[in-house]
Amino acid sequence: MNVIKCRAAVAWEPTAPLMMEEIEVAPPQEGEIRIKVVATGVCHTDLYHLFEGKDKRGFPTVLGHEGAGVVESVGPGVTDFKPGDKVIPLFLSQCGECKFCKCPKTNLCDRNWSSKYHDIMSDPTTRFTCRDQPILQFMGTSTFSEYTVINQIAVAKIDDDAPLERVCLLGCGISTGYGAAVNTAGVTPGSVCAVFGLGAVGLAAVMGCKNAGASRIFAVDINEQKFEKAKVFGATDFLNPKAYNKPISEVLAEMTNGGVDFSLECVGNTEVMRTALESCVKGWGVSVLVGWTDVKDFSARPIQLISGKTWKGSLFGGFKSKDSVPNLVCDYMNGKIKLDEFITHKMSLEQVNDAINLMKTGQCIRCILNISK
Ligand code: NAD
Ligand code: ZN
């Protein structure tokens, strides 16, 4: 099989703009799939790696982990995929064989990229080269490229009729927020919920609370422009913490006779994580961390947990990825979950820095980049 030369947006170093480059994409090796990427969303986790995480070992890299595409070719030993199949790359793999995959309690596959830094290839090399340098594959996916190579344990085959420029969102943000509410929090009918942070992840959490039958859903954000969308997904009350001269947890406690049943942190800020926990009712309140950060410790008073609250976290909404993503695609096609409403902008791969800037300045929910036809 041949090496493919194609366009990709390369992140050469932390905080610098991405550069459009011609890269070489090696043929898929044993157990791998080469994918023609059709569309991708831009998620805050891409920005986190570029601007907040700044781990130099993670560069140069091709970002992007919320994509959808078509199988171009498969490596030896791949029997479940063939050229032409529609697929969604998975930043969280499901090998089906490790002790975590075999346990119904978790979706944390042991062979995931995070256990090997920034690469999910079968050996610790990358399939990307640019200017004679190896380029890493962020989260094992790298969807800001016309072609990518991914291990078959991190690819979901989806319905032939699925619109790729929309279902790509199920590769990260929407599955994450939705699952955090319905799976990890386990939102119950009639309950009162609060979602902190109304980006795509938080809005998907609002949608999850609504689909699970919550009677009241507080949408909390410091950017009030997000409230209108939150209403579309089912939020009933809207709070801007900056508009009060006391902690928002106190405001919520007063409005709900003691606190909410379920709270979800979808910002990635350790202070907000604490606030979300403090906003829960004692005795049974459950607070879920969804926002991503690994640069700071969080803190809380032990009495928060001694009084019967539960604090937990959620990766990819608790969904076992390979099994669940095809079903979520069907849920979208059957009208059970929304996707179109998250898309506020559409751009080309060349405009990726504009898309990043839109998210950085809070002007978009999701911008979809059209990568190829
Ligand atoms: P986003 O930037 O679109 O949304 C974040 C929202 O939080 C914005 O609306 C912003 O105004 C709001 N916000 C900022 N500070 C706030 C504060 N102090 N109080 C209340 N709201 C505040 O991001 P996104 O793409 O929706 O991602 C949200 C978070 O989820 C990120 O941290 C991302 O890395 C993380 N994430 C986690 C997983 C996972 O599996 N756990 C997966 C995907 C994304
Ligand atoms: Zn993401």
From TrEMBL:
Its cofactor is Zn(2+). GO terms for cellular component: cytosol. It holds the Pfam family ADH_zinc_N. GO terms for molecular function: S-(hydroxymethyl)glutathione dehydrogenase [NAD(P)+] activity; zinc ion binding. Residues 13-369 form the Enoyl reductase (ER) domain. PROSITE patterns: ADH_ZINC. It comes from the Eukaryota. SUPFAM superfamilies: GroES-like, NAD(P)-binding Rossmann-fold domains. One of its GO terms (biological process) is formaldehyde catabolic process. Keywords: Metal-binding, NAD, Oxidoreductase, Zinc. SMART domains: PKS_ER. Belongs to the zinc-containing alcohol dehydrogenase family. This is Alcohol dehydrogenase 1-like. It comes from Sinocyclocheilus grahami.
